[in-house]
């Protein structure tokens, strides 16, 4: 586990009742909770119930978390337990590929992988938000589903068609140089 100073800071501030820190924790780790729920086949309102239970437990137990940097792992384990409780209560079978809480071995890579994916997504969202508006608009159009053509982008942004590609390259370079991504060694 790495000692992520951002996570440590958020946990310490949340312990002191900082609402912005709580919001940042939820925003950063909600996708992780949804990912764990999905792995257990828990979706929709059931996933909402599980996530709500996890956040409630965090509020109740944040002061007992000895290592603030351990928050992501605590969230994963707590979400796993909540999912299993829900599945048992509804007399459902747990998916074969779902690990039992505390299981060792190959499944640990999955939990670490989920944490890493959640952190990467958060870093990418942070880096994207730091881009100039023009770059965000251009990249959003390029990565929309379906992606906009260069002609559509040219018309929408008022740039020559021949400038779309070079501008895209510059925007992606700015994104790659972001501190948020560099912190995860994604650049």
UniProtKB/TrEMBL annotation:
GO terms for molecular function: DNA binding; sigma factor activity. Keywords: DNA-binding, Sigma factor, Transcription, Transcription regulation. Transmembrane segments: none annotated. SUPFAM superfamilies: Sigma2 domain of RNA polymerase sigma factors, Sigma3 and sigma4 domains of RNA polymerase sigma factors. One of its GO terms (biological process) is DNA-templated transcription initiation. Residues 25-92 form the RNA polymerase sigma-70 region domain. Signal peptide: none annotated. It comes from the Bacteria. NCBIfam families: sigma70-ECF. Belongs to the sigma-70 factor family. ECF subfamily. This is Sigma-70 family RNA polymerase sigma factor. It comes from Microbispora hainanensis. The lineage of its organism: Bacteria, Bacillati, Actinomycetota, Actinomycetes, Streptosporangiales.
